[in-house]
Amino acid sequence: MEDIEGDAVVVTGASSGIGGATARVLAADGANLVLAARREDRLEELADELESEYDVQALPVSTDVTEREQVDDLVEATVGEFGRLDGLVNNAGVGLGGEVAELTDEEYHTMMDVNVDGAFYATRAALPHLRETEGTVVFIGSFAGQYPRPGNPVYAATKWYVRGFAHSLAGQVGDDGIAVSVVNPTEVRTEFGSEQGDAFEEQYGPDEATEPEAIADAVRFSLGQAGTDAVNELDLYRRDKFSHF
Ligand SMILES: NC(=O)c1ccc[n+]([C@@H]2O[C@H](COP(=O)([O-])OP(=O)(O)OC[C@H]3O[C@@H](n4cnc5c(N)ncnc54)[C@H](OP(=O)(O)O)[C@@H]3O)[C@@H](O)[C@H]2O)c1
User: Domain named Ketoreductase: which ranges (predicted)?
Assistant: First the structure.
């Protein structure tokens, strides 16, 4: 895999789960991290951990990805600090509600705003800088964005959007040398789901679902493609997923 030492990588949703694990895996390989999410205390804690554990710089930037100006500022802060942007990991995401007939406007808009608008804002702001480094955008998709999810059609639709956007974008920016990747997990043991009950890390035991570090490794692999190559889509599923589909 390509060396990422000294690269500057933005991870959204870095305050928890897959985002936090991704930041750790990338820092272990020498990347400088820009950590984005709303919970600033968690970002600061993680930045301290990364800087003391690994020989890297980590910049916490409190960001609500639904606020376009904050996302623009996030990318500007990255380029201001590191003079470059090599990777963007569009990871921030939420799943709320479920039954369409009972879904509130707030639940609907929050999922659309974070999962769809947030990924769009960050990608748009990042592209001019990624052109200069021939960098990579990684989207965290989902099994729910590949197969129907009867339990939460709106969440599923946001992830179908992410995949559709990512693959079409790949066609638009591939000539510029930018790689676009989608990583699709099934259930991962994180705080996902905690807004409305037990988090997945409580619902599933260690032998029942994926650990966030495994998804982080998939992101690292996507960011590590050299030359003309790009990971198009990487499905990392529970091996018993289709037994319970
Ligand atoms: N866990 C799973 O089973 C699973 C499966 C497939 C795909 N995914 C996807 O994986 C990604 C990461 O989820 P996770 O499992 O790691 O869940 P998580 O532990 O709940 O983390 C979600 C992250 O998103 C951030 N976030 C939420 N709203 C935000 C906003 N408005 N602005 C900025 N950041 C925001 C949260 O940070 P703050 O609250 O601090 O802002 C948090 O860091 C999501 O896109 C999710 O859809 C998860």
Answer: 7-191
